[in-house]
Amino acid sequence: MLTKAELNRYNRQMILPELGLDGQEKLKAAKVLVIGAGGLGCPVLQYLAAAGIGTIGIVDDDLVELSNLHRQILYNHTDIGLSKSKTAAAKLELLNPHVGFRAYHERFTPDHATSICRDYDLIVDCSDNFTTRYLVNDTCVSLGKTLIFGSILQFEGQVAVFNHNGGPSYRDLYPASPMENINCVEGGVIGILPGIIGLYMANEVIKLICGIGETLSGKLMTIDALNNIVSVFKIAPEKKTATIKTEAKTINEIDKTILDQWLSECPDEIFLIDVREDYEHEEDNIGGVNISLYELTNSLDYIPKNKKVVCYCQTGQRSKMAVQLLRGVYDGKVYSLKGGVS
User: Fold this and answer.
1) C-alpha distance from residue 180 to each of 23, 197, 249, 319 (Å)
2) What is the 8-class DSSP label of residue 236?
3) Residue 239 lies in a domain
4) Which residue, 82, 127, 317, 341, has fewest beta-carbon neighbours within 10 Å?
5) Sheet containing strand 229-234, strands side by side
6) In the structure, what pLDDT confidence band is assigned to residue 314 with cuts at 50, 70 and 90?
7) How far is residue 155's CA from residue 116's CA, in Å, rounded to a whole number?
8) What rounded mean pLDDT belongs to the chain?
C-alpha cells in the first residue's frame, strides 16, 4: 500500500490512465535486478528508482574511474576508486528513500548467477562483455525470467526483451559468442548514447511490470544516434531441439584470407555488401555494394540469390545481424566477415 508521501511523489505518473494507482502499486511490489552499474546501468537505475520500483539489486564489481565520468552520470570525480554498486546504491537512496537497494560488489559468475537472480522478477542486462551477456541470458532461460537487454558501441545501440512468455532468447539473435570482445574501451562511445538506450530499457521494465503498451519482446530495436535512424527487427526463434554447438554454426563467418581467396578464384560468384552507413563506406571500404543494415530488408530484390553473399562492417557485429536477417532468404549462403574492416 502506498504511503501519503509516495502518492505525492508519484502523482504525475499515476494520473496516466494506463498506469494509475494499480500500476504504481505493481511497481512498488516489483523486484528488479540490474547487472552492470556503468554507462547503461546509471540511467536505468536512476529512472527505475525515481519511478518507484520496490526493490532494486545492483551487480557490479568495478570501481569508478575517471574515464567513466563522461557517460556514467551517476558518479562524480570524488567517487573515483569507489565501488560502483555500493556508490550507486547510496546515491539512489538519496534520490528515493522509498526504494530498497541491494548492492552486490562482485562479478556476475556461474557460481553465483542463479542464487542472485532467483529472487528478482525482472533481470536487466547492462553489462559490457559477451561472457556476461550469455551467462545472464542462460540463467534467465533456466529460471524462466524475463530479460531486458541493451548494448552500446560508438554511436549505435540495441534494445530488446528476451525470454518473455516463451519468446526468443538472446541466443536466438546471437547463437554463440564471438571470439573477440569489442566494447567501449576498444571501440569508443559517445557519452549520451547510454542515456538514450538506458531510458528505453527502463521504459520496457515499467511497461512489463505494469502490463501496459507494446514491448520489445521478440524484437530488436537499433538506434543510430549519429544519423537519427531507429529500426525495429523481428527476432525469429531458433528450434529448441538444436544444441548450442549446432546453433553456433548458423552464423557463418569467414576471415579476410578466405574472402580474398574467393574473390581471386571466383569473383563472379561473390556478392559483397558493406552494411555500414554510406559515410563509413566512403571513408574506408574493401569493395562491394553499400547497403545499410537498416535498409537491408528493403533491398532484397537487389541481392542475387545465386551467389555467395558476404556482409561486412567495421567490427563484424552489424554483419552478423545482417546474416541473421538474410539467412532465411539465402538458405545459409550468406556470410559475415569476421572482425570487419578494422
Assistant:
1) 42, 23, 17, 15
2) P
3) no
4) 82
5) 100-104, 55-59, 31-35, 122-125, 146-153, 156-162, 219-224, 229-234
6) confident
7) 32
8) 88
Structural domain boundaries enclosing 11: 4-234
Could you give phi then psi for residue 68, rounded to 5 degrees? -80, -25
Residues contacting residue 69 through CB under 8 Å, at least 6 positions apart: 75, 76, 77
> Are 303 and 271 a contacting pair, CB within 8 Å?
yes
Lateral strand order in the sheet of 308-312: 253-254, 334-337, 308-312, 270-274, 289-290
Q: Which 3 state secondary structure label does DSSP give 269?
A: helix
CA distances for 157 relative to 49, 78, 93, 184, angstroms? 23, 29, 29, 12
Tell whether the model's pLDDT for residue 183 goes beyond 80: no
Q: H or E stretch including 258?
A: helix 256-265
Question: The CATH number of the domain where 64 resides is what?
Answer: 3.40.50.720
* % of the chain with per-residue pLDDT over 70: 91
CB atoms within 10 A of CB 152: 28
Question: What is the radius of gyration, based on Cα positions, of the chain?
Answer: 21
Residue where one domain finishes, among candidates 234, 263, 278:
234
Q: Specify the pLDDT at position 245.
A: 33
Given the C-alpha cell 559468442, which residue does it identify? Answer: 177
Cell matching residue 145: 525470467
Q: Does an H or E element contain 57, and which?
A: strand 55-59
Bridge partner list, 35:
59, 125
Q: Which of 182, 178, 209 is nearest to 53 (CA)?
A: 209
Q: Looking only at Cα atoms, what is the longest distance across the chain? A: 76
249 pLDDT above the threshold of 60 = no
**Cell numbers of 160, please?**
530488446
